[in-house]
């Protein structure tokens, strides 16, 4: 089955639910084209309802949210911050912004997220050297919830605050509780490839009022709210625009429906397992519900992975490798790492297949048929 040369199938393109223009027009008619505004506040309220978190600060990116989370915990130059190695580089880069030192932790095989045993090993090993990390940043990779209960237990045991990177996981749940509610501070992303988008944007979530107020201040150039044009520290221009907030309000109405669609796409790809073409995937454990942001699988070898990607590309279908572990990036050479080899294996054998909400059944069947031909 050959794909017609009329368009390209992208990995995870943005999708519209039908009311985006209505909300954007409303924002335009209000003449509030600046950062902040009514639509941003309403979007924050909707996010608080979904996650059941007390405070939400909408920002211009998920990366900004991680940066402010670290700043709110007083992470600074020379501090150590524990970080998941198998993640997008934005999970770690804000640590470097502050002159702090990332300590990379490998994944476990159950969820592909931070390994709690390696995390505790790292904390104990650093403690022998007189080092106490200022924070732990863990992620729910590709929307699959991490082993949060164990991570929280370790965090509390050693009194190290958790930052939850839920950038890829809005709509995922653990025992009926939304991700984005498990960290002392949690973050979301609304980049164009996420399950809902504000074109570019993010949010910081917390149940602590002081952290919320601190984040708001830092995101508005750290201006003193009592004295105009008076600044006592360096701040940032991280606010979300009202137009982006309007787009988010339209998109968030569809979150439950779009999670269902993402999960159906993933289930369809599982039918590829026939003959010699065997895939492996993350199985949801008890109480775990994933938004399946991207449909990710492991194949037999890097050769098969590259053959699948190149064959799909020949048919103008985008597929990608999984994230390269951060401890392997040249920019982080020499940083402390606690590695088991799991993330290296995921990188070498993993593949992301097209997972956009708008992926129709004809195109999905095309992807499946092409992959099935490769052994």
Provide tags for this entry:
375 residues; alpha/beta; Aspartate Aminotransferase, domain 2; Aspartate Aminotransferase, domain 1; eight-stranded mixed sheet; three-stranded antiparallel sheet; 12 helices; 36% helix; globular
Please describe what this structure looks like.
With 375 residues, this protein is an alpha/beta fold. It has two domains: 233 residues, Aspartate Aminotransferase, domain 2, CATH 3.40.640; 118 residues, Aspartate Aminotransferase, domain 1. Helices cover 36% and strands 14% of the residues. The protein has twelve helices and 14 strands. The strands form three sheets. Strands 1-9-8-5-4-2-3-13 form an eight-stranded mixed beta sheet, sandwiched between helices. A three-stranded antiparallel beta sheet has the order 7-6-10, with no helix packed on it. Strand 6 and strand 7 form a beta hairpin. Helix 1 packs antiparallel against helix 8. It is globular, with a radius of gyration of 21 Å. The mean pLDDT is 95.
User: Helical amount among residues, as a percent range?
Assistant: 25-40%
| H/E element sequence | HHEHEHEHEHEEEEEHHHEEHEEHEH
Read across the widest sheet, the strand sequence of neighbours is: 1-9-8-5-4-2-3-13
What is the tally of helical segments? 12
- Mean of the pLDDT scores? 95
Radius of gyration from the alpha-carbon trace, in angstroms: 21 Å
In CATH, what is the class of the largest domain? Answer: Alpha Beta
User: How would you describe the shape?
Assistant: globular
Known CATH architecture of the largest domain: 3-Layer(aba) Sandwich
Instruction: Kindly report the CATH topology of the largest domain.
Output: Aspartate Aminotransferase, domain 2
CATH evolutionary superfamily of the largest domain: Type I PLP-dependent aspartate aminotransferase-like (Major domain)
Quickly give the structural class: alpha/beta
Give the distance, in angstroms, between the N- and C-terminal Cα atoms: 17 Å
Q: Note the beta-strand portion.
A: 5-15%
Number of structural domains:
2
Counting DSSP E segments of at least 2 residues, the number of strands comes to 14
Unreliable spans are none
The largest sheet, given as strand count, sense and whether it forms a barrel, is: 8 strands, mixed
């Amino acid at each position: 089955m050959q794909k017609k040369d009329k368009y390209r199938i992208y990995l995870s393109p943005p999708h519209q639910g039908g009311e985006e223009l209505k909300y954007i027009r409303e924002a335009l008619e209000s003449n509030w084209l600046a950062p902040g505004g009514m639509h941003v506040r309403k979007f924050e309220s909707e996010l608080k309802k979904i996650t059941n978190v007390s405070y939400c600060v909408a920002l211009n990116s998920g990366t900004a949210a991680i940066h402010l989370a670290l700043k709110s915990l007083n992470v600074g130059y020379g501090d150590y911050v524990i970080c998941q190695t198998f993640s997008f580089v934005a999970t770690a880069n804000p640590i470097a912004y502050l002159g702090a030192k990332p300590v990379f932790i490998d994944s476990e095989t159950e969820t592909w997220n931070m390994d709690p045993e390696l995390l505790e090993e790292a904390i104990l090993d650093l403690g022998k050297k007189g080092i106490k990390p200022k924070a732990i940043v863990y992620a729910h990779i590709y929307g699959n919830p991490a082993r949060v209960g164990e991570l929280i237990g370790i965090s509390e045991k050693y009194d190290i605050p958790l930052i939850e990177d839920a950038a890829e996981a809005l709509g995922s749940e653990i025992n009926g509780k939304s991700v984005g509610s498990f960290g002392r501070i949690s973050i979301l992303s609304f980049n164009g490839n996420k399950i809902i988008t504000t074109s570019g944007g993010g949010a910081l979530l917390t149940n602590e009022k002081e952290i919320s107020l601190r984040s708001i201040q830092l995101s508005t150039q750290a201006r003193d709210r009592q004295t105009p044009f008076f600044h006592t520290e360096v701040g940032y221009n991280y606010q979300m625009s009202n137009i982006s907030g309007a787009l988010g309000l339209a998109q968030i109405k569809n979150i439950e429906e779009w999670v269902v669609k993402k999960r159906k796409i993933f289930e369809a790809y599982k039918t590829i397992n026939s003959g010699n073409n065997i895939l492996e995937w993350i199985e949801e454990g008890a109480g775990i519900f994933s938004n399946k942001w991207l449909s990710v699988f492991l194949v037999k070898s890097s050769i098969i992975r590259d053959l699948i990607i190149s064959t799909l590309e020949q048919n103008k279908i985008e597929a990608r490798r999984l994230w390269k572990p951060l401890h392997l990036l040249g920019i982080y050479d020499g940083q402390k790492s606690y590695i088991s080899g799991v993330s290296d294996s995921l990188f070498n054998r993993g593949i992301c297949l097209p997972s956009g909400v708008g992926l129709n059944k004809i195109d999905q069947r095309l992807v499946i048929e092409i992959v099935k031909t490769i052994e």
